[in-house]
Structures are given as C-alpha cells and as structure tokens.
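We were asked to recover a plausible sequence for a given structure. The inputs and outputs are reproduced exactly as logged, with field labels preserved.

PROBLEM: sequence recovery
POSITIONS: 391
GIVEN STRUCTURE:
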C-alpha cells in the first residue's frame, strides 16, 4: 500500500468528486474573447462568455487601455489609500456614479471583493441579513464573515421576506439579492424588495453583476430597468462582463461610500487595480449608453433561441436576459450533453451542484451581442440532436 502523504485525504476527496462528475477543469484559451474561440487547440463556437455586449475586444477599449498604460504604467504601485489612487480611477468612479444615477461610487478589484467588503463593513453580531436562497456564493460568504444572523427566504418570495423582516429585532437589517440571478437568468422583483425594506427600515443591496450594461434603455442596469430610486439602495455591479474589462464598483449614498472607504477591508488592504483598466472602462461607458443596437441584438438572439428550441425532456426555464438555463436534471446527463456539443465544436458549460440545487443540473447558455443568427441556429440544431441522442 502506498505511504500516506500530508495530502492523501485531499486526493481521496478529489477522486470522489471526479467519480461523481463534479471535478472542475480549466480550458486553455488562445487569442481574444469572441464567439468563435481557440480552445485547447481547436476552433469552437462558445456560449460560455459573460461578454454580453461584445466589448472585450472592442478597438476603442483596446486603444484607450494602450493610451492609459503609456500614461500611467502597468501597475498602480500601492493601495488606494496610500499612493495607488490614480486620476484615472477617480475619473472612472465619478463617471460610474453619474452613469447609474447615484451620488457616489467606489471601485473594487472584483465583485467578490466588493460584496465581502460591503457586508462585513456594515454588519456584525446583533445585525441581520435577509438573503435570497439563490444568491451568488460571494454574497453568502460575505454574510458568514460578517457574523450577522443569516435569514434565507425562498427565491424571489417577497411575502416570505416580509415575515422574516417583521419578526426581526436586529439593530441593522440588510436585504441581499442578485439583481439578475447568475444560474437562472431571472430578475429580482426589485420594486417589491425595496417596498419591503422601506416598511421594515432595512437596507437593500443589489448585486447587478449580470444586469449592468444589459438592463435598462441605456444599459444602466436594474435600477434603470425598474425606474427605482432610494437612498436605502446599495448598488454593486461588475465591470468584467457587459463592460468588457475588469473590476467592480459600489454606488449609493455619499455617507455609505465614505464609510466603505474607511471600513471595507477588501478595499483598504489590497493594491489598487491598474489605472490602464480604468482608462479602458471609461471608454466603455459611452458605448454601453449610446449603442442600444447591441442590446437590441441580444434581445433578437434571445428570442431566436427561445422560439427555435422544441425540446421534449429538457426544459428551458424563463429568462429574458443573456443567461439561458437549459434544465437537464442529472449531473451525468448534463455532462454528456455538454460533451456532445463539444464534439461538434460548440462550448456550453454543464453546471452541477453545489453551484445549483440538487436535481437541477443544466447547460448554462450565455449569449452575446457578438453572436450571429447562424450561431444560434447551429446551437439549436445541436441541442435537438443532443436530446435525441441521449434519450
């Protein structure tokens, strides 16, 4: 028998995950992000990317980043509160606040860090969080780190949320919800959530990672989509999806942003993002706001996919966003479906527990304005073939 090593128990767990079809692997991508990718040495049609508006390879963003790198260098050199807060960062924060219609904004390196920073800065023991059961992992982890009491309500069930809020005696109350749910593509009932917060003196934090750039007439996100305004709202959005670059920001009341600047550990104790990224992002905002044809193209592609699929066993759940969840059920069949598509040069990831609930393994189809109608037709044909072949 082989000698035990310090990592033997980890190896056993990895083998168990692989046997259960839950082992994750990376793909090696060469070249730019676009619908047709070079992945692991082969050309494939990708429905995996969060580059919803097709901006990741936009020439104006590339030129802006090159110019900013020539001006500011490739590294920020320090945290924002030492000497890392460049003029380009500051200008981007002001532009983001204006873009989403909120008083102030604060940049974070990632959405994960933004969520951790906000929740742990605002809440602690004796406070309470009320979280949608399907929230992103970063929101769930943030609550654990904050040590606040966690109350989870059924997905988008505002009545259940109301009861939890009514029964709470916590000093501070925070309702947490994805604006667009990352594995289902549906949109949170933001006006109703806000009304509940108003009635029960709670804050409302919205993670608009998948709505920023996509929702609203000008792509300003879920707040524009619903036309809601309130000083109770803490708005977080990421900039590596529809904005095409990298990073995240939190926007809201001036006192909120100043407090986070003083207290959010994931902002204070990390090196600032390279200023060149801020330069590229500043160039992205007018494209997002003014080029509505990109969102119109997305809508057309979503309608084409949903209208063209005629599946018998698999189910395409309701979603009006670029995230289209095709529910298959079993982990094994979801993996087989993904492999069937891959063998035909199409990449669609199989999503399995614990990322989604047991028995809801799925193909997560992500659409981009850079896709063409022939790409959608090819996907539809392949999905029909996959369901038939795996019956």
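RECOVERED SEQUENCE:
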């Amino acid at each position: 028998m082989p000698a035990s090593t310090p990592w033997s128990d980890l190896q056993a767990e990895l083998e168990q995950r692989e046997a259960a079809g839950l082992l994750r692997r990376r793909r090696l991508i060469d070249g730019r992000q676009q619908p047709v990718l070079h992945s692991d040495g082969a050309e494939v049609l990708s429905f995996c990317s969060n580059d919803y508006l097709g901006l990741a390879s936009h020439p104006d963003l590339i030129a802006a980043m090159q110019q900013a790198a020539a001006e500011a260098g490739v590294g920020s050199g320090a945290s924002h509160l030492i000497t890392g807060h460049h003029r380009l960062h500051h200008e981007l924060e002001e532009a983001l606040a204006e873009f989403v219609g909120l008083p102030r904004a604060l940049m974070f390196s990632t959405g994960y860090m933004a969520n951790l920073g906000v929740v742990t800065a605002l809440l602690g023991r004796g406070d309470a969080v009320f979280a949608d059961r399907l929230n992103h992992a970063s929101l769930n982890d943030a609550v654990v780190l904050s040590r606040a009491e966690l109350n989870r309500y059924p997905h988008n069930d505002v009545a259940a949320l109301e009861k939890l809020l009514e029964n709470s005696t916590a000093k501070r109350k925070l309702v947490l919800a994805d604006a667009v749910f990352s594995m289902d593509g549906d949109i949170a009932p933001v006006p109703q959530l806000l009304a509940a917060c108003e009635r029960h003196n709670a804050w409302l934090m919205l993670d608009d990672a998948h709505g920023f750039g996509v929702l609203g007439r000008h792509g300003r996100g879920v707040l524009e989509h619903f036309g809601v305004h309130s000083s109770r709202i803490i708005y977080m959005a990421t900039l590596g999806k529809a904005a095409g670059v990298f990073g995240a920001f939190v926007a809201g009341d001036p006192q909120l942003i100043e407090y986070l600047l003083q207290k959010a550990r994931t902002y204070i104790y990390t090196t600032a993002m390279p200023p060149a990224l801020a330069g590229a992002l500043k160039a992205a905002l007018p494209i997002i706001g003014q080029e509505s044809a990109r969102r119109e193209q997305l809508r057309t592609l979503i309608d084409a996919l949903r209208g063209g699929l005629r599946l018998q066993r698999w189910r395409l759940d309701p979603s009006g966003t670029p995230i289209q969840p095709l529910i298959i059920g079993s982990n094994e069949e979801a993996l087989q479906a993904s492999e069937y598509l891959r063998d035909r040069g199409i990449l669609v990831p199989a999503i399995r527990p614990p990322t989604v609930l047991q028995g809801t393994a799925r193909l997560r189809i992500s659409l981009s304005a850079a896709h063409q109608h022939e790409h959608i037709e090819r996907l539809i044909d392949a999905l029909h073939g996959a369901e038939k072949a795996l019956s």
